[in-house]
Amino acid sequence: MHVQGHEDPVLKLAAEIASTCYAASRSSDICFIAVSGDIAYSGSLGEYEAAAPFLQNIKGLIEKEGCPSVEILMVPGNHDCVLIPESKARTIMISNVIANPEIAEDDSVIEACVVAQDNYFKFRNGLTKTIPKINHKLMTEYEFLVAGKVVRFSAVNASWMSRIPEKAGQLIYPANKFREVISEPAELRFVMLHHPLNWYCPDTFHELRTLIRTHATAILSGHEHINHSGEIIETNTGTSLYFEANALQPPEAESVAGFAILQFDLIADPELKNVHQTNY
Questions:
Q1: How many other C-beta atoms lie within 10 A of the C-beta of residue 173?
Q2: Inter-residue contact 74 to 153 (CB < 8 Å)
Q3: For the segment 32-43, what is each residue's pLDDT rounded down to a tens digit?
Q4: How many angstroms separate the CA atoms of 70 and 129, rounded?
Q5: Is there a contact between 3 and 41 (Cβ–Cβ < 8 Å)?
Q6: pLDDT at position 40, please?
Q7: 236-242: long-range contacts at Cβ-Cβ below 8 A with a sequence spacing of 24 or more?
Q8: Percentage of residues in the chain with pLDDT exceeding 90?
Q9: Which of left, alpha, beta for 51 (phi over 0: left; psi -120 to 50: alpha)?
Q10: Three-state SS string across 30-56, please?
């Protein structure tokens, strides 16, 4: 979304965006508004204050149209971090994490890095009403019972050590710290993370890829502002779906704005062979 203020053009489109969901929402047990990061442009409180009514309006309009339950779920992106002015202490800590990836599991290290996301977490806590089963700064786990089926969202904070500039291949994520969480059984599991897998260092890449592709039904990501989706079939991890999103309001003039509606039917299509995607 990259919201900078109340006058952003995208903020005037809540009714139009909500209306594209009406046909799908009328026949759904629940609707999720899933935001894969970069709600704000620079992580400021003012940007989140501008973004909140926009998302709340979309939610309210879909509920009014007849969907019995609508929830807003999100993960932070690099733009959801306050990185200017630079915190020298945080920069030094991140350099230490890159040099010694094992310290990424230390909660005191994590806390020192996620302080840049304080405004994001205040915003998220105000909009997401479901109480998470796991509420860690690097992993938030939500569980829903939908038509007798367990649906889980694993919200991965991949941007906890984002910097300016962001360099591909340097992000580290302590996937093993949350292995038990992501391994919990569910009929439908979404893993949300802002950065696609190519942005992580080799050790994290292999560990995180194996974990999420083994347990996720679908992986939702953003960051690169290019709409792309498909099915991955691997010998070791089985089958999973991935959906990479456009930015709703991209900061680059050459990027195409957009969003997608995904429909999953666990009753008529329990093996999810016919997931329906509509792009706008």
A1: 28
A2: no
A3: 999 999 999 999
A4: 10
A5: yes
A6: 98
A7: 236/210, 237/209, 237/210, 237/213, 238/213, 238/214, 240/212, 240/213, 240/216, 241/217, 241/272, 241/275, 242/218
A8: 90
A9: alpha
A10: CEEEEECCCCECCCCHHHHHHHHHHHH
